[in-house]
Amino acid sequence: MIELENVSKSFTLHNQGSAVIPVMAGASLRVKPGECVALTGASGAGKSTLMRVIYGNYLAASGRVMVGDLDVAQAEPREILALRRETLGYVSQFLRVVPRVPTLEVVADPLLAVGVEKEAALDKAADLLSRLNIPKRLWSLSPTTFSGGEQQRVNIARGFAHEYPAMLLDEPTASLDATNRATVLSLIEEAKARGAAIVGIFHDVEARERACDREIDVSVFTPEMAA
Ligand SMILES: Nc1ncnc2c1ncn2[C@@H]1O[C@H](COP(=O)(O)OP(=O)(O)OP(=O)(O)O)[C@@H](O)[C@H]1O
Q: Which PANTHER family match (predicted)?
């Protein structure tokens, strides 16, 4: 479902004499449906960069970045938007939403975007918000004024609303209490059980070991190691 072949990435620092910094070379990995793979490696090894390459935020300099049938490294912007809407979810620990939209709609939105009927979408959103212990009295308010932890849980609910065939998880359990952390781990297990292919970054070792089937140390993709 997610398959990278020989991917390289470098950054050009235009404000520093156009210096070219290679950060990744020869990156290859394959994640099957129902599998969760954790990216590991020291700070600066390139975990976030690899996730951004898969999501299409960073353009790979070379190689193939297949998500389903689409090569993200070659795709048109509209194809990437369709991929993100239908196929590839991204859950980080931070919520970015349009102001003034009620929480229930923020969570239901990815379902409405793929054509799910409004009532069913709102039901699913309500179920996820309950599971993540967001009190019902907050559902009609915009999450912009919520606490950091509440916003994180709204973001997770939104990220898991549509059943994406592929998902990227960036520290989804960071700074959650034990109960909500367990819920997120269950959501990940449920996504795997329905066949989602997942790539994640988890600094929480216990969460990583429970959620993921294997680990890939991205340090092996740093240019000097791959040369
Ligand atoms: N936009 C950018 N411009 C220039 N260099 C970048 C950019 N993004 C990342 N880098 C560089 O790429 C390397 C990998 O960074 P990345 O954020 O992917 O590491 P990481 O493994 O996710 O680290 P951490 O665990 O600290 O989040 C670093 O040396 C970083 O400085």
A: ALPHA-D-RIBOSE 1-METHYLPHOSPHONATE 5-TRIPHOSPHATE SYNTHASE SUBUNIT PHNL, LIPOPROTEIN-RELEASING SYSTEM ATP-BINDING PROTEIN LOLD
